[in-house]
Specification:
nine-stranded mixed β-sheet, globular, Rossmann fold, alpha/beta
Length: 201
């Protein structure tokens, strides 16, 4: 299970990076057809056409509309449990520990990857995710061709322990080219140069 945490509100880019990551996983097939991404949507705000703008084929997306909290929890568990689903993605706020644990066990059984997009308000809560990624938009560092984000890999208390504030494993900067859909890791030198200043001095 992976948690994509919005570091600066809903528009920080966590959902965009989660979808890009999911797209990379379902395309990473040695042979045969591409995999399947299941999106469990309880708000009604997800559209496959928007995902297509990130390089995801609508044919590879299973969209599940949940009409209640209980239906959403059940649907997410079922798609995580299914071996036919490569990646299962949903948006989650505060989550009961028992539900989270069931999802984590279902993902292990199904063999796919579960992804949760969440707000930073959940950071003090225990997590069954193997990895938590904090995503922050780079205000003032955008360039004409796309967007940039800082992504911090956080070490969290998987299971019993809660996330420890201030602890980090690594932070990187990613850049998305909106024209080509390409995502790249910026070199350290390029990341440290302020906007408008040449890297050569």
């Amino acid at each position: 299970m992976l948690e994509w945490i919005n570091g600066e509100g809903p528009g920080s880019g966590a959902a965009t990076l989660a979808l890009l990551s999911a797209g990379g996983l379902i395309r990473r097939q040695d042979s045969g057809p591409a995999g399947t991404l299941a999106v469990v949507d309880r708000s009604g705000g997800f559209y496959t056409a928007a995902a297509a703008g990130l390089g995801l084929s609508p044919e590879g997306i299973l969209l599940v509309r949940a009409r209640s909290e209980g239906e959403w929890q059940w649907a997410m568990e079922q798609v995580l449990r299914s071996p036919a689903i490569d990646v299962a993605l949903t948006w989650a706020g505060s989550l009961d520990d028992r539900v989270f644990r069931r999802w984590q066990l279902a993902a292990e059984l199904g063999g796919g990857v579960g992804m949760l997009v969440r707000s930073s308000e959940v950071m003090g809560q225990a997590s069954w995710a193997s990895t938590r990624l904090m995503v922050r938009g780079c205000v003032g560092e955008e360039w004409a061709g796309g967007r940039r984000w800082r992504v911090r890999v956080l070490s969290g208390g998987v299971g019993r322990g809660a996330w420890r504030a201030g602890y980090q494993e690594r932070e990187v900067m990613l850049e998305l080219n909106d024209e080509t859909g390409g995502l790249r890791l910026l070199p350290r030198l390029e990341r440290t140069v302020p906007p408008g200043v040449s890297a050569t001095g």
